[in-house]
């Protein structure tokens, strides 16, 4: 029998003089502020560790006698007051955005993501996507961008990993205690808690909204684990990426639909909503539904307005990576919703299909997101090209490079990942500018002024800390498995604080090829057992619970690490999380990355070692494809792509061994009379100087603001002016153009080009174009010119507008243009017509084109 339970919330008993500690604990600015972390460590160093670096739990469990002690400790109080004052100043002083755009003080941006990796004590993240989202919020806070985050508060979050005696991954799901985490219930201005309702078939699901403060940025998280919900609905926010497809679609409904309603309940109506992956794509239709109801629009008109203010980022390099739902599942959850929008359900289904008329096509969340966005981007230059290739069929009339998917290369929040020791060193020689504006090239140029011995000793201290940390972790792992006394003694002697230390830590997906390094076991053993030039490898990572292929890779690594020749030189760390990642990126000499190109959309783990002086050895994929230069690291291969994966693995594993044996290891162990590896240090400095100011989230968020957010906000505000007449005019234009586009054709083209032309001259081009019922202001006529390939084809040309001169007697419009001759070689041109409207995003909204 279920007992009646009366709940009550026990809160910490903190003396009035120490209440500043609570303010500091509940603002996650402490996660990147070494001074605040030092304050909590000073309060109780051992408790800081046992509480999992969670200051809220720490304040709830600390001995009251210790609080009374520090209440009388003048030195501690001065330290606390100083740190608290810095937080208050940080929260109130204008930042970059306020200084750059004072006229946009009422702008609001909603950033929706299924996971956020902010700190290990808030485990609502699974991997790189979540860490990227967390770093995005942190840099938005630093820059003063008026952004709010929206996500889900998982009762169990992502799994905790442990290995059985055979090295096979096992999962456990400890329950998150929200009342001892840095989250608080969100409240309206009148003090009432925020609870929103989401309609599901036959019932309403209620979701409580919680708030996490990330510096200046609030993050709102939805939680359906409420007693008034059905048991299966209470479990919607149970596990990150857990459950079957039915659970997944309900999670994404709560995120997209519920998250949009949560912001409305809080009085926040964002101009721009950023969908970080397709998980949040339902926000597009929910924004449209709200506009439809409030302004009496049709769904098509409301979708036009909603899309104008939406931005979509995809992190997926393969079509199979997108979330797909079968039409029956979508019908179950959205049949009534479609009726509420005033559209037939088949039309609603078409919003998630590349071909709306194909009844067998699955409902694709990325397609839904793209059809409800005015800006779409990948997360590196290479990924942008891959993404354009993936969706080219939708814009088949346009050259691949004009497919409306751009790229914003990912970055990392440097202050969250740099070690305290390295940060102090940079402060001494670079001044505060590297921290205040991580994109400042001139600040990072000062790395060259750091004495080699100081940079090397700082890095060596972090390597020593890493080895000490790994030994503790190994000992704990062995104790949990009931290891023998001999095995535990071996763990305490594992690794060498002075050896070349290579790190490999990431999600164990098969395409990341964690075992590429193990392919020639004998050769690797020779490398690792060399006493003259010691090398060691640290590995960590989780496989998805349902990915047996990834789990098998972990098992192979663990079995290899138990070989007597290498057991002190290769270690696999269980339960990879932010805390382990921090130690690794701050202490390794080399970060290894071996994805199968072009499967790594961006990758950010290798960026985290940059400010810590680590070097990258990687396949030319993701960010490294644009970051690599021989002066700053090493590339495995030359960017080749293979159809035969077995052959690829054989070739690239050999290339990796050759790199290690001939370049990486000799350079590290080449020491002068002073014991310093001068050549290695020069590479460290070049990497820090050239890569740190580029591959950081300050630059990334700045790019999003100026290239995505502000254009989207301007489009959204322009369309919502007055009584939204611009929307209705735009819809009428799009309808007219679609209906009449078949009448458009290019009748003739005439140019004065001869067989050759000189650089500096120009070629005059004329075209007669029939527009049917359309007018010249409805279209753009362009000269599309560029160099020709060996097949005499224009692959990546440039469009030059032509001017309309007059209409001739048979109804054709005459256009004239000019092609500047700027470079030698074989060039060509053709003429094309595309739609044109000041409020339309072409070709995203109207993929129409007529070629000569």
Describe this structure in words.
This protein is α/β, with parallel strands linked by helices and 852 residues long. It folds into 4 domains: 16-92, no CATH class; 96-410 and 704-719, 3-Layer(aba) Sandwich (Rossmann fold); 445-695, Rossmann fold (3-Layer(aba) Sandwich), CATH 3.40.50.2000; 741-851, Immunoglobulin-like (Sandwich). It has 31 helices and 28 strands. Strands 1, 2, 5, 6, 7, 8, 9, 10, 13 and 14 form a 10-stranded mixed beta sheet that branches. Helix 2 (34-43) runs antiparallel to helix 6, helix 8 (128-143) packs across helix 30 and helix 21 (452-480) packs antiparallel against helix 22 (485-492). The protein is globular, with a radius of gyration of 29 Å. The N and C termini lie far apart (78 Å).
Write the SSE topology:
Layout: H1 20-25, H2 34-43, H3 45-50, H4 55-61, H5 64-71, H6 74-92, H7 96-100, E1 109-112, H8 128-143, E2 147-152, E3 160-163, E4 169-172, E5 184-185, E6 195-200, E7 203-214, E8 217-223, H9 231-234, H10 245-265, E9 272-276, H11 282-295, H12 299-308, E10 310-313, E11 324-325, H13 327-341, H14 345-350, E12 363-364, H15 365-370, E13 375-378, H16 381-390, E14 406-407, H17 414-417, H18 420-430, H19 433-436, H20 441-445, H21 452-480, H22 485-492, E15 500-505, H23 521-528, E16 535-540, H24 548-561, E17 570-573, H25 578-587, E18 590-593, H26 605-608, E19 615-619, H27 624-627, E20 633-636, H28 645-669, H29 678-691, H30 697-719, H31 725-740, E21 745-751, E22 762-770, E23 779-787, E24 798-801, E25 803-807, E26 813-820, E27 827-835, E28 850-851
Parallel strand pairs: 1-2, 1-9, 2-8, 9-10, 10-13, 13-14, 15-16, 15-18, 16-17, 18-19, 19-20
Antiparallel strand pairs: 3-4, 5-7, 6-7, 7-8, 11-12, 21-22, 22-26, 23-24, 23-27, 25-26, 27-28
Helix pairs in contact: 2-6, 8-30, 10-11, 11-12, 12-30, 21-22, 21-25
